[in-house]
Fold:
Amino acid sequence: MISYRVPMVPGPTWVPPEVRAAYQVDYGSSDLEEEFFDLYGRVEAQLGQILRTRSRIAIMTGEGMVALWAGLKSCLRPGDRVLAIATGLFGYGIGDMARSVGARVEVVGFDYDSVVDPAVVEEAIVRFRPKMVTMVHCETPSGTLNPVDEVGELVARHGVPLFYVDAVSSAVGSELRTDDWKIDLCLVGSQKCLSCPSDLAILAVSDRAWKTIAEVDYSGYDALLPFRKALEERYFPYTPHWHGIAALEVACRMVLEEGLDATIARHARVAEACRKGVRSLGLELYPRREEYCSPTVTAVRVPERIGWKELDRRLRERGVGVGGSYGPLAGKVFRLGHMGSQARDELVAQTLEALREAVGR
Ligand code: PLP
Structure:
């Protein structure tokens, strides 16, 4: 069984024992017991604090991709216009997903090593008049963080009905203000900065998004509509995942006990130390400018003279697990995931030491 001595994969992250313990309990039926409904209500309130929203939050079984699909399928009808802002694999991918459900998609694309330019987005919004704007906060495969706040302002100013934001690898580890930034669908997975196993999809859904969801009336396993009143009516569309939600309560409690601002500050500090250390080894950050870098994941160019396979082997030999990358960045970029439980100074220090040995500095 693989267990990294120094876990630095950008999700799934290392699951703390307190969170793991919630899986050892033999719970009753989550379809029947008041105790489960109380738990769900408490976790929804915790997530509201963490995502800074008053919106109703759906907690679905699955992981990040379930949230991404649920938000699209529940809000879109064939022919609806979607403006997909893309700066990386997930941003472009969401555009493809929206197209596959029949939407008319225009992509506002940027290079993978850069972030969104709001002026370009504004021109596209005014010209294309989309029903939905989609974007990714942290593009995990390229280690960048996009200015969701600035796009949210544009979306509100130009009256776009729905703003869909993939916050899967940014939530908890970076500033994220769902309501202030006018996000209608804020999408999160359990396995990144919350450091739970990959078994839950979390969606904060605004009132106006719920209205659209009711009009579209999509039905399917990933449909959001049944979650609108599931708690009040004690009726979920499938047996909810008691173990996962109990673990999520522990994870949320850990964040709130540390304090959300303190958690975000810890990520910023650790990320900065990581970038500084990487540069001091003569390695090159992947994002074009340092201010584009995400506080949750650092993407670094693979030294050509070593290659990704060999670098990975040398790091694994030293007990360090890091991520490669995907799509056009496969083999060219590797990533250090200092997110959630892994945003710790000592883990970054150990990773940098192993990296120093691996690149022969
Ligand atoms: N969105 C982003 C930005 C991600 O980084 C990921 C996973 O890496 C996902 C969505 C999909 O999440 P999951 O792998 O939990 O399905």
In short: The mean pLDDT is 97.
